[in-house]
Amino acid sequence: MVKVGIIGASGYAGAELYRLLLNHPHVEIVAISSQSYEGKMISHLYPSFYGVFDMIFTNDQEVIEKADMIFASLPHGLSEKYAKQCDEQGKKFIDLGADFRLDQEKDYQQWYQHDYQYPQLHEKQVYGLSEVNREQIKQASIIGNPGCYPTSITLGLYPLLKNHMHKDEKIIIDSKSGTTGAGKSLTEDTHFPKCNESFHPYKIASHRHTPEIEQELSKMAHQAVHVMFTPHLLPVNRGIISTIYVPLKDNVDFDDVYDIYQKTYQDEYFVRVLPKGQVADLKFVQYSNFCDISLHYDERYHQLIVVSTIDNMVKGAAGQAIQNMNLMYDLDEKEGLMMIPASF
Ligand SMILES: NC(=O)C1=CN([C@@H]2O[C@H](COP(=O)(O)OP(=O)(O)OC[C@H]3O[C@@H](n4cnc5c(N)ncnc54)[C@H](OP(=O)(O)O)[C@@H]3O)[C@@H](O)[C@H]2O)C=CC1
Ligand SMILES: CC(=O)N[C@@H](CCC(=O)OP(=O)(O)O)C(=O)O
Question: Quick one: signal sequence residues (predicted)?
Answer without folding.
Answer: none
